[in-house]
Design goal:
single chain, 655 residues, alpha/beta, Rossmann fold, GMP Synthetase, Chain A, domain 3, 40% helix
Length: 655
Amino acid sequence: MTMTAAQPGLQSIPALLARNAEQLGKFTAYREKEFGIWQAWTWKQTAEEVRSMAMGFLALGMERGDYVAIIGRNRPALYWAMVAAQSVGAIPVPLYQDAVAEEMTYVLDHCGARFAVCGDQEQVDKVIEVQETVKSIEQIMYLDKRGMRKYDHSRMNWLMDVVAEGRAGHQRFEAELNKRMAELTYDHPCVILYTSGTTGKPKGVVLSNRNIIETSRASSEFDNLKPKDEILAYLPMAWVGDFIFAIGQAYWTGFCVNCPESAQTMMTDLREIGPTYFFAPPRVFENMLTSVMIRMEDASRMKKRLFERYMAHARKVGPAILDGKEVSAADRAKYMLGELFVYGPLKNTLGLSKIRVAYTAGEAIGPEIFEFYRSLGINLKQLYGQTEASVFITQQPDGEVRNDTVGVPSPGVEVKIADDGEVYYRSPGTFVEYYKNAESTASTKDPEGWVATGDAGFFEPDTGHLRIIDRAKDVGKMADGSMFAPKYVENKLKFYPNILETVVFGNNRDRCVAFINIDLSAVGNWAERNNIAYSSYQELAGHQRVLDMIQEHVSETNESIARDQMLSGCQVHRFLVLHKELDPDDGEITRTRKVRRRIVEEKYADLIDALYGGKDEIYTETEVTYEDGRKGKIKATLEIRDAKVFDVAQKVAAQ
């Protein structure tokens, strides 16, 4: 069954829900795993729950135009709270559940939230803490009752009690609810999503019903999504991707949204569900690959040899088979054997056996990682998007998938490249405005609707595919005039399972240097196999054999970079392994794990000076934030190492 195009009566998410309840009433809309058991709700049951919750919100006095903060992990009831708020004319504002109280204070105060719907006691405690500063919050609702018995409930309610009150008072509230739902139009705000704030305070991106529904329609048709498709909703609810996939596309197509029990059980739940449509940022695919490589290190010699042999063949012919290109009968037969013995069991272990369409975005994925998954027969593609675009700017059509481009403009999207190389777009998904920030809105979106992405890129003349080089503000020049593109180098380094994060410096300098974070899981596993004892991340990161291993990875990366004439000047000459992981609580990365370069440069200026100053080691003291919010300092003497660099002329001549 294919959903019909938007009609005059289908101009809001609640209207789409009512349509799904009528047309797809018996189809499963949501599943949630709790206490190890999957519970399911049909579209008809979901519509009933949302209506009851909306009437409960009316009983609490929720008005048109109110802002409702939604804070917690992915759970059906929290998704329903967003749609229930929309049904009464209010605007949901999802927040990152791992944000500290200080970060929540800014968003809650900026949007002026009157209501907060929290997942559990931890989130309630944060909201209560910020109420000393944020005076607008009048009512707190919570989903998980554990630990909440002794709280002051004069301005607090269990969410299920709110639902029960709405259900009991339906005769009083139904007429008002129907009236408010009928008032919703394409131009009514659908949601406010706050940006991650890589360069300053987060901005509230106002997305309308038009933005979400038109984008969901076009992107669903692009990949032929159907009601029988399944997704796993595990990414932060405050992130635009989760809102589009778990609300926009789900309500447009009627497919099922599955919510895992917890972050810790996500991989197990992924295997149990076996989604057909899957999205993950590069970090998730990198972690999956790391777990595979760790497992293979512990495998028997015969299994390891079998894996290496068939993976080499998969890299050779797998992507071509996936794209329907010509492959010899012998190669196909060998690939089928690989599917039986290696690829099939591996995909099943990862929970990716049923994938029909998978996407990655958020930042560039390492080409080697990308090709690994496609060689297994997983239809992994790249898209390019932003919160301000309701996600989709470009997508890769089936049969035109490459690791070095982000595809062609998505349906209904126009893209152009400015004279300075910056990418601009406009589309039905283009955001309405930055909330309470007319100046930023005007500087980002011009009167004709063109939006400046802040990214540098170009269209390939022969294919029409867009290539993104880096953030426009991060792309610079080396002292000799050659291009400096740090993300290009960082993504190559992060291909290695032992490297979790890296930050490359070199703008206006004569050479590049790098900070590196090791992956504690991968390197810790390696240390155990090699009988290396350690008691902390800091001790392991400074171990001589670990430094030797990272030095080898950097040299191999330099050899690869040297093959690219345009970017060969970005080879890393010197590096150090940081004594701590970059942490969102310390402001070094965002909640979506994007590096805040300016903050890192300022915070670790002494280390950068040492890298360029020719020192072999540097003593440093760094302030850190512990899980309970306390501040402390860690001290370390870091070793600085040189990496082997390659002459580009020699590499080009050798090819």
